[in-house]
Amino acid sequence: MIVLDRLALAPGLVLLVTDEGDGLPRPVPWSVDADRRAVSGDGAATALVGLLGAGSRTIGAFRITAWQHTTVVGERSFGVDQTNESVVVGEQAVVKWLRAAEPGPHPGTAVLDALQRHHFDGMPAPWGLLEWTAPGDDEPRLLATVDTLLAGATDGWTWAVDDLREAVISGSPEVVRETGHRLGDLVGRLHAALAEDGVSAATADDVAGWEAGADRDLEHALAVTTGEARAILAAYAAEVRAATRVPAGAVGSSLVRVHGDLHVGQVLRAGAGPAAAYVVTDFDGNPVVPPGERLLPQPPALDVAGLVQSVRHAALVLRRHEPHHDLAAVTAAAEMCEAAFLTTYAVTVTSLGHPGLVQPDLVRGFRLRQVCREFSYAAVHLPRWSYVPEAALPALLAPPSPTEPS
């Protein structure tokens, strides 16, 4: 491990920027006294929050952006995902240490800045960022973020499954209809806020790029999958290619900065019923897309497709773990949620002055791209997830039911 730079956090605690031999810098909170990576309870995350108290500033090659600050103490682990490690500080803030400092500008930084400027309140209020500029870099690399902890919140892979279960057991679709309305309003306000920085028009090259990207997603999935998953994917490959051709008239479609990796797991919910709070999180963009490309304007249909397809995946999760539920009832509940989402999304963005963000003709193609990526994700990272794309792909290519928007 080569240390490229260091930032003093507190007595006995530093943040190292290291190179472990692959040329990609990594932020490593370090306990000097214990001579090891700092873990939850050592105080590194608390110290980072403390640095925000002095406001935004530059310290050597490090840049601190501070939006708000409260003195907090006490740490507990919040968990580790594929790329990042999070620590809860004082039960008020979440510090996320990125596992790798990719070349900047980081998409999350730009998106958070835009959402702050346009007063979007459908996210955990950000406290600040820590960035670092490597020698020779034009833009800083994101090392860590600090956001408000939404107490008692669960992500959509829990609450969406719960809502679908409740709808099926009760025989009433009202719960999932309300969920869809709340999600549609949330994503609509998100896109409208990002559109305030400008809306551009898709060119013929953009459209060609979407089709080429769909082909790459399919080919990559075919290359990495094996067994039954690959057999299913190969059987539907021709239909996928045909269905991901962009409809005529897409040139000129609205492009804006988007979330880029939106699914129910990125939406936290705290509370229940009409008083429940929904917030969208994790603005890093899709991790399989190069950082520079994540900053490019995209069709808002990309986010819409990711969210509605994930509702269908939540239904598959429910059926997988509780197969006694009637398939038709589970599917109908998911379709009800999707329909309410799409309707409310359109109403919200239109009421906020951006009707061009409604792109129904583009949603299905981006849904199919997402399913192809789910095949790849399952093959490379989580084989037990394979049942989701294996079931989702045939369902998505089937003719729409009478209750599903086409």
UniProtKB/TrEMBL annotation:
Name of the protein in question: Glucosamine kinase
Biological processes, Gene Ontology terms: carbohydrate metabolic process
Biological role stated in the UniProt entry: Catalyzes the ATP-dependent phosphorylation of D-glucosamine (GlcN) to D-glucosamine 6-phosphate. May be involved in the phosphorylation of acquired extracellular GlcN derived from the hydrolysis of chitosan, i.e., in the incorporation of exogenous GlcN into the bacterial GlcNAc metabolism.
Binding site for Mg(2+) 1: Q266, D282
Keyword entries, A-Z: ATP-binding, Carbohydrate metabolism, Kinase, Magnesium, Metal-binding, Nucleotide-binding, Transferase
Source organism of the structure: Nocardioides psychrotolerans
Top-level taxon of the source organism: Bacteria
Record-linked HAMAP family: GlcN_kinase
Family membership: Belongs to the actinobacterial glucosamine kinase family.
